[in-house]
């Protein structure tokens, strides 16, 4: 048996020294065989910060792949039901429809969830065909008011505000209906016959009480800034990590969104982006009509609207021939 001397313990002869610890000699490596397959690259962990718009601590959410799962994750953090959430805005707690969470979230965006507040009923008499409402939805069952046209029928009703969710028309619940279905129902109501809207307003923070937001048109409404990596959400299907839209794609989507409002009374940035993608891959109006019918047949777009979309994307005004 060896004993430690004055110089301290020494490793066995031939053993390498590493950090003062003796190791066995390295064994010869076996002959190189076929290279082992590389492990798949791990997806980045996407964590977003969130608060309730009327005030709450900050929470963290991750692991959602579509809009409904996003709402479920937010609800879990704050111990509420997902059905309490009316819509979300990005980077502001205010009911700002220009900051509405639509089809894309920037990786650095802060999510504010607007939850159910007071319920109210209003009686409306349709004195003209258009009520002056633009409808959108949250992708999880609630349609709400995105814009009120100045001078319109609804504009004269002070109790109706941008951000109000439409819960029922004449006591017929429309929860679960898409925005275009709600817009169609309102368009088809007879003139001169009063009807009742049951609305749910978002719960307001103290500094938001008394506001009646009216948003004007703004370039890039509801869109994240271009050049950023974003998480694109879909009403159905998984989320996709991609680069933000280019300025030309944003402009085309804005033009299509304007057409959706003028023809159907809805605004939907995700739908507009989908239609831009379809139009760019269609060499003619007829092919665009076939493509839209295959993926968006429930909208029943009229032929003249499809022609306008194709022209807005492929031959916008100002383009040189």
Automatic annotation (TrEMBL):
Pfam families the UniProt entry points to: GIPC1_GH1 (PF25083), GIPC1_GH2 (PF25082), PDZ (PF00595)
InterPro entries per the UniProt record, alphabetical: GH2_GIPC, GIPC1-3_GH1, GIPC1/2/3, PDZ, PDZ_sf
Record-linked SUPFAM superfamilies: PDZ domain-like (SSF50156)
Domain of life: Eukaryota
Ranges of residues in domain PDZ: 121-188
Chain intervals for the UniProt region annotation (Disordered): 1-40
Gene3D superfamilies hit by this protein: 2.30.42.10
Entries under PANTHER family matching the protein: PDZ DOMAIN-CONTAINING PROTEIN GIPC3, RGS-GAIP INTERACTING PROTEIN GIPC
Entry similarity comment: Belongs to the GIPC family.
Designated name of the protein: GIPC3 protein
